[in-house]
Design brief:
Shape: elongated
Distance between the termini: 84 Å
Largest sheet: 5 strands, mixed
Number of helices: 11
Helix content: 25-40%
Strand content: 15-25%
Bound molecules: dinuclear copper ion
Strand order of the largest sheet: 7-6-5-9-12
Radius of gyration: 35 Å
Amino acid sequence: MFADTASVSRRSHLTGTRSPDLVGVTVVVDEMTISVFSGGQSAARTCWAGTVVPSLQVLLGESTLAPHDPSQDLGMASFSRSCRIHSGAQILRGLAPVALTALLFLGVAATAGAQQYPNTTFNYTTEMNEAVTHLWDQLLFWATIVFVIVEVGILYIIFKFKARPDSPDPKQVHGNTALEIAWTAIPAVILAFITVPTVKTIFMTQAKAPADALQVEVIGHQWWWEFRYPQYGITTANELYLPVGRTVNFKLNTSDVLHSFWIPRLGGKRDLISNRTNYLWMTPRDSMALKALNGSCTEYCGESHANMKFRTFTVTKEQFASWAAHQKGPAVYGAVTPPAVGVTPAVAGAAATTKSGQVGTELADAPTPAPVGFVFPREKLDASTMPTATPPSSIAFTAGLTGDVERGRQVYSRSSCIGCHKISGNPMSAGVLGPNLTHFGSRYTFGSAVYENTTENLVRWIKNAPAMKPGSLMPAIGNGEYNPAIKAKVTMGGLSDQQIADVAAYLLALK
Ligand code: CUA
């Protein structure tokens, strides 16, 4: 229907049908020639930058084209109209980044401090993140002022000085001393406003911790966290207890590659660097008592970097003292009758189920629990802090097995486990390569806080840890499982499902 074509030439020859896209070129080139071919005739006209092509008739002159049918007229009309529309579209396109930036600012502002975002960093939970949040607020304030002034200026200039059909060529200038001084001086003033609070915050957050601070040594491993409390003689893994109202001074080291330690809700994020000790300190406010918080590694450290998480429990000073006193000593075990694997409550009799509904814990005959120190109460665990990962279905496990704690202790003490793990109170288990398991049964998670500490998860982990955490240094131990470390199936020295159930019962009994 529209047999006509128009072409636009500048340095290269752009050709197209009479579409808005083609005509849109009109407003951006410095100089061009528009040629129109219609009904076997052609005409051309040179246009200058900013020219809004008034209409095809004007463009081509009166006599260029012979009278033609309505469809061609329509084409010409749209040629003229779309030219203007496109100019508007270009302005809008220019404004798109502005609008996006504004949306981003609004989005960030809206999320600031919102408690429904459990990992938000905009908090006033420690002096560390209060300082940083306050600095952020100041930067945002000045940035917003600059943003508004600049955007208003841009919009004003766009509309005030845009090209019109009757616009003369703009005055050609080169250099403007007053402007150049202004746009050098203004940023210098803005930077001064930003520098003072920034430097103040840097000095504050880099200062030494108070001498009486709680010392916690954080050691990053591929891929789990070791926490040591030298003042209390405690070594634990992946679950960090912090008393509120007392400054904690983290001493950050790595046993292998770079990691980065971060508890978003408490603020601060600092790298664990080989051959160097970094420090990070903060004081959880009293209002933070009995909170479960997520922590993670934030420096890429290998294939299970994303699986390198931990939990932080903020507790009162008294609760911390109770926890610490118990953690220092060997585990108390026998507090809970071991759960059966894959047994439903109906089979196990007076049994309870976890949320998975698969594990029955025989509570009826459970001995009176031995006194253990404070453990963060389960009901205070935020949903966001409980792992939801499940073992891959490739790790099969015999259902209905009930582990025996004492048998498990014996199997564990003869197995390769003791080469890497330490359990105070079990003289055979003195390894230091893997997480200290002394009070393993009182932890809510394992595998660097990736799995909930349940029998169902634990037996599969013991059977084939690398299948549950890629790159895990802990090998597959279950008979017949593929062990990537030796690139073969486990045969010699592997554990049967019953033995694994026993070991799991032993570990879970370590309160
Ligand atoms: Cu450790 Cu990433």
